[in-house]
Amino acid sequence: MKKQRMFDELVELMQIDVSSGQETEIAGLLVKKLEQLGFTITRDEAGETFGGACGNVIAVREGERSGVVCFCSHMDRVPGGLGIHPVEEDGILKSSGDTILAADDLSGVAAILEGVREAIESGEKLPKVEILFTVGEEAGLYGAKAFDVSHLESKMMYVLDSPGRIGRVVNGAPGRALLEAQVFGKAAHAGNEPEKGIDAAKVMAEMLATMETGRLDENTTSNFSSLWSKSAKAMNVVCDHAILRGEMRSRVGEKMDRYEEYFQSHCREIAKKRGAKVEFKRENTFLPFQIPEDAEVIRIIREALTEMGIEIQINAGGGGMDANIFNQKGITCVGVATGYFKNHSTEEYLHLDDFYRAGELVARIIQKI
Ligand SMILES: [Zn+2]
Predict the structure, then answer these.
(1) How far apart are CA 10 and CA 102, in angstroms?
(2) Which pTM value belongs to this model?
(3) Which fold has domain 175-286?
C-alpha cells in the first residue's frame, strides 16, 4: 500500500467543499482520476430528482479475464463539511474541530481508488471492475434511489460506507417507512352548536394515546411526532381535520407490514366509534435487508480479510444506507467499514491504519473475483 499517496488523496478530497446536491467539483476530479486508471465514465441525471446539480458517477474498466465486481461510496457529506482542515495525530485523522471530517464517506472513495490502482499496478489479469460514486446519500439516499442498476453488470456490490474498525462487514440494516392517518371530522359552530360537530383533533388524540408506539420488539420501533390540522387557526369551529404522521423502522420487512396493518385497524376502529372518517398513506424511505453469512459477497471478503490477518466482524447496521436501496433493486451488497467513528459530528475521526488496509482490502477482493 502506498500510504502517503492514499493519505494525500484523501486530504485532497476532504478539502473540496461538498454538500448533498452540490457534488459537481468533487465528481469532476474523480472522473479525471478514474479516466487515468482506464475507466470509461457514464454520468446520470440523479441530481434532478432532488434539486441537486450533479448526477451519479458510474465507472467501468473492462476485464482482462472473466468475472465482475462493483464498489460503491457516496460523494456527498452531511452539512457542516465546508472548509475542512484535516489534522493528523498519532495515526488518527480528525478535523480542526469546527467541521466534520467527511471520512464518511471519502475514506471509502479513496480506498476504492487506491485499491483499484494497486490491483492494476500488480500487473495481474483483472476482472471487470465497476465503480459507483453516488450523490445525495446523506440527504435521503437520492442518488441510489435514482440509479438505474442496468448500468451495472455486477450482481454483487461492496459499499464502503460504514463506521467501525476494518474487518466490520454490515450484512443488514433496518427499513424505514412513513405512516400517516388523515382524520376527517365535522365542522360546527363551537359556541352555538358544538354537539353537531365531530372533533377530528380529539379523535386523532385518542388514536395516538391508545396506540402502541416506541420500541415494539427487539428490532421494530415507531414514532409519531407530527400532528397537524388544516383547521388549526379557527378557534370558533369544531375541528374537522387532523393529520397524524410518523415513522416505523424494522429489520424485518414483514414486521413493518404487520405494524402498518395494526396502525390502520386501530385508527379505523376509533374513527368508526366517533363517527369520523380516516384515510391512510405509507411511503417507504427504504426497505430492510439481511444478507446470509454464507452468501458469495461475504465469502469473498471474509477470505480477503483472513489473508490480511484480520478477523471478520459481521453485524447489522443501525441506519439506512445506499446498500438498502441496491439490495432492494436486486444487487446483493454489504457495507464495509473503513475505520471512521463519530461520523456526522465535529468529533468524527479516522483510524489511518484501518483506512490504508481498506485500500488493500479492495485490491484483494478484485483479485479474488
Ligand atoms: Zn455515509
Answers:
(1) 10
(2) 0.86
(3) Alpha-Beta Plaits (3.30.70)
